[in-house]
Amino acid sequence: MKIKTALITGGATGIGKRTAVQLAEKGINLVINYRNSEKEALELTAFLTGKYGTKNIAVRGDIAKPEDCRKIAVQAESFAHTIDILIHNAGPYVHERKKMTDYTEEEWNYIINGNLNTVFYLSRLLIPNMRKQKWGRIITIGFDRVETAPGWIYRSAFAAAKSGLASLTKTIALEEAKNGITANMVCPGDIIDEWKEKDIAEAVLYEDKDSPVGRPGTGEDISRVISFLVEDESGFITGSVINITGGKDVLGKIYRN
Asked: How would you class 178 by CB atoms within 10 Å of its CB: exposed for 0-12, middle for 13-18, buried for 19 or more?
């Protein structure tokens, strides 16, 4: 059986890191992309190799830049020949609350490139080898109810990019279905700070009164779904947008604030 390899953008920290651990547990080799977190990326690859025996490398690159995406793809396929699983985890985000008219052109373009155009940049480079083997998995990351193209106050660029990405994900799913390639979007809820790397077992010990399920969301909540979607037996699931929010009305909370 061919050992599969996954490329995770922004895989050195947060939900990307938790996903890398989840996939390594399944024996999947990892290409961990990072922009600034070199130390964390190298530590993660060494940890995964030591604990799970997988082969892993760290690759630097800014996924908002097409030239960096080309370098990432070349290094990844030099490492594994074919990237079987592509997880578009990284995505720039401006935490400052800004109206659309307050964005500079540079800020706007960077957010659009890093959340939408990068999926075009990387997918078009890696899909051809997936087609040759008649198997591939592409996972993108959205936000709660993104498939309805909702407005998101003070997050115009991010919301526009991710809403477009939901459509692009579904289009890739339709175009590549005959090639054994699936494409799905996973939408984390209000998972913040250190909880992005924590396990469910830790979360059940804490109470979150804002969450209908009564506990905080974790990186493992997201990585378990991604791990399921990349399995061979999940090939019938494609073009889906899966919200993982613990039932919390994430955008409604934002509007009330």
From this structure: exposed
Beta bridge partners of 33: 59
According to CATH, the superfamily of the domain at 5-256 is NAD(P)-binding Rossmann-like Domain (3.40.50.720)
DSSP string for residues in 77-99:
HHHHSS--EEEE-------S---
Our CA angle for 68, 72, 77, nearest 5°, is: 150
pTM: 0.95
6 sits in the region (left: phi over 0; alpha: psi -120 to 50; else beta) called beta
Contact 213, 246 (CB under 8 A): yes
Print pLDDT tens along the chain (257 aa): 689 999 999 999 999 999 999 999 999 999 999 999 999 999 999 999 999 999 999 999 999 999 999 999 999 999 999 999 999 999 998 889 999 999 999 999 999 999 999 999 999 999 999 999 999 999 999 999 999 999 999 999 999 999 999 999 999 999 999 999 999 999 999 999 999 999 999 999 999 998 999 999 999 999 999 999 999 999 999 999 999 999 998 887 655 54
Q: How far apart are alpha carbons 89 and 65 in whole angstroms?
A: 15
In the chain, where the domains are located: 5-256
